[in-house]
Fold this protein.
Amino acid sequence: MNVGIVGGGIIGCATAWELSRNGVDVTVYDGRPVAGGATHASAGVLAPYLGAHDPGPLQPLIVRSCGLFDAFVRRVRDDAGVAIEYSRCGSIEVALDETEADSLSRFAAMHTAAGARWVDGDALRRLEPAIAGDPHGGVVIDEHGYVAAPELTAALAVAASVRGVSFIGERVASVNCESAQPAIRTVAGQSSRFDRIIIAAGSWSSQLAPGTTVRAVYPVKGQLLRLKWPAPKMERIVWTTRCYIVPRQGGHVLVGATMDDVGFDESVTEAATDQLLSAAHSVLQMPSGAGMVEARVGLRPATLDGLPIVGCSRTSDAVIFATGHFRNGIALAPLTASLVTDLVLGRALDPALDPLSPKRFGL
């Protein structure tokens, strides 16, 4: 079987690798470098319960996918032969006032099975001395963690290439499914037919959807900062209503993230940078020598109902969508790759696909 994938971000590369492990011939198209879009500006947080106090249909999918990560990263490392920064460092969701403390303590009591526990302000500072001010306590979940998203995606591309996947560095102009075999046409005019085509183009996916003008996926701009962070090293992800901070190897932390509905504008703005720096200073005690290294911007692919779009197009079973993951593309990558591979190979449909169908948007 011959499969074309539009999109070289985390979803496209994870799916390409998973298909190649199952003997499928795969070609990936993207005009940008691997992980050059939203993936580049992701903190890679793997934390289904952070900020998720009103769980909906998405949370069980994130829990399930995060449970796959240990084996997923191990297999990618083995195939690619490269290191991937990945840590189950745990998280602390900090209550900044009494109202938040009441809400978070009740949340912890209801989610003990997920490993959540409430700690008071003194215990919180012992767990993470970098937390500033007088926190009112917080929720600790030891199983939460992170993965370096661009690093993982690059490793997936290497692992896929080792298994024979081809990467074409051209932007796709259209996907056509008017004949028995759908075709991908690049902006250079080259057209190639495939048995299956997977649209994993993030915020640009709606522009490629055959036979529709529905804006089912749209971009939400997110800005992220990387800060130099001298010793002592932060140990856990810190999450607040103002910002989140993710510790990284090599003396850095990531601070995120803004959300702006401004179309396809990918420019770094001083206002967003100042907003994140101010939030970080209000949450953390900055060590001497801490400071900004860079700002990153990505366009997160959002949908109208907040759920990803994964499944066959209404116009053709040969066209499959794997897009609209918004802020959860990294966390959902292993599960999405598995679900799409099952679709391509004609295996039994997973019930997880039911609420994610493209047909709910007429795609």
Observations:
- The chain has two domains: 2-80+149-217+304-361, 88-144+218-303.
- The mean pLDDT is 95.
- Residues 88-144+218-303 form a domain with the D-Amino Acid Oxidase; Chain A, domain 2 fold (CATH 3.30.9.10).
